[in-house]
Amino acid sequence: MSFGTRVDGRCVEAALRHCTALTALSCEGCLALDQAPLMASRTLRQLRVGGPIASLRMELPSLERLDCSDCWQLQTIAWDGAPPPASGVPLERLAASSCAMLRCVAPFLAVCSGNVTELDFTSVRSSACSLPNVAQCDALPPAELCTAVSLCPHAVELGLCCACVHDGVLREACRVASGSLHTLALSIGAAVTAAGAGELRQCLLLQRVALPRSVTAECVADLAAHLKNLRAVELMENPSVDSGSVAALLASCTALDTLTMCDCPRVGDAAFEPLACALTPGAGAVLAHLAIGDSDVTDAALLAVAGRCAALHTIDLSGDVRVTDTGVAAVLHGCPRLAVITLQRCLLLTNAVIAALAAAHKRDCGAVEFLDVYGCAAVGSGALSALLDAVDLRQLNASALVVERLEAARLPAWGGVRFFSTRNDWDP
C-alpha cells in the first residue's frame, strides 16, 4: 500500500487497523505526516516513511525492512505499545538516510533479534560501496551510534557516514561484525585515525570500503596486504595517499573492480606500475570503474591502464592537466567496453582525442553513452558534431558555447542525445 502527500498520521493508523493482512506500506513524501502516529500491525514486514515526522513509534513484531529516509525532522525511532516478541523483531535492514536530526535509535535496535545485516545512517550513493559517503546524521551522539553498531553482530553493510564516527565506533564495528562485514562507508571527514582504520584488518570478508581523508598511505598499503578480497575502494580528497599505497592496492587486490581516488594529488604514474609488470599478471584485469581526477598522472599511467584493463567501463580523469591525446587515445583503443568517459578540465586534450573516440567506436562497435569534455578548451563543436554522426551518445557535457552551437546544428541522426554544461562536484 502506498499513500500520497496529503495523508496524515490518523489515516496511517486507521489503514493499519483495518488492513489486517498488510505486509508492505509506503508513506514516502507524506508532507502532512507531522504527528507521531503509532505504526501498529502484526503482519507488516516492510515500512517506508518520509516526511516531517519527528518521532517514529512502532508496534510491528514482523518488521523486516525499515526505511525512514528523508524524514528530515526525525529524532527518535522507538518501539511502543505491547511488549516485543520474545525472539525479537526480525529486522534485517534499517535505512535512515538524510535524517539530520536523528538522536535516538539504539533502544529500538535492542528489541530486534540481532539479525540486522544493513545499517545505513547516510545519504548520497558512493561509487565504491553502493552506500553513501557524506555525513548526514550529524546529530547522532557517538555513544548512541556505538551502541547501535554493537547491536548488529551480523552486519553485512554499514553506512557510518556520520560526523560523530571516531576510532571507538569503528573498533566496535570491527569487533562485533568482523566475520560478516563486506561493505563499509565512512565519510570523508570522519575523525578516524590510521590506528582506528587499521582495525579493519580483521574484517577479512570486506569487499567494498570508503575511507576518510585522514587515512594515511601506510595504512592503505597495510590494509591492501591483509584484505585480499577488496573489490571497491574509495579515497577522496586524501593528501596522504601516494603512488606506493595505490600500487600496493592494485598488486595485492586482484579482484578490484572499482577504484576512486579523486583529488589525491600525490598519486602519480608509479601507482599504475603493477599494471605493466609481468610479476603481477592479475592486477587490473577486472577493473571496471576508475576515477583518478585531480591527481598527478600523465600518459604513462594511461598507457599502463590501456595495456591491462580491457574490462574498463567507466573512467574519470577530471582535472588531470598533464594527460594528452596520446594517453587518452591509448585507453580508448585498449578498453573497448568503455561507456562513460569523463575528461573534464583536461587542458591538453584537442580535437584529436574526439577523432580517436570515433575511430575506436567504429572499430569495436563500442557502447560509449556518456562523454564529458567540459573545460577542454581545444575541443570544438565541429569535432563533436562529427562524433555525434558516428556514435550514438546519450549525454554530452561541454562548455556552454559548444553546447549552444551543437543545439543549433542538431540533426535527426543524433537521436535523443542530451546536451548539458556543468562542472563536477570537485571542480574549484
Q: What characteristics describe this protein?
A:
single chain; 428 residues; alpha/beta; 16-stranded parallel sheet; three-stranded parallel sheet; 26% helix; 17% strand
What does this structure look like?
- 26% of the residues lie in helices and 17% in strands.
- The longest helix is centred in the last third of the chain and has 14 residues.
- It has twelve helices and 21 strands.
- The radius of gyration is 24 Å and the shape is globular.
- Helix 9 links the parallel strand 17 and strand 18.
- Helix 9 packs parallel to helix 10.
- The protein has 428 residues and is an alpha/beta fold.
- The strands form three sheets. It has a 16-stranded parallel β-sheet with strand order 1-3-5-7-8-11-12-13-14-15-16-17-18-19-20-21, covered by helices on one side. Strands 2-4-6 form a three-stranded parallel β-sheet. Strands 9-10 form a two-stranded antiparallel ribbon.
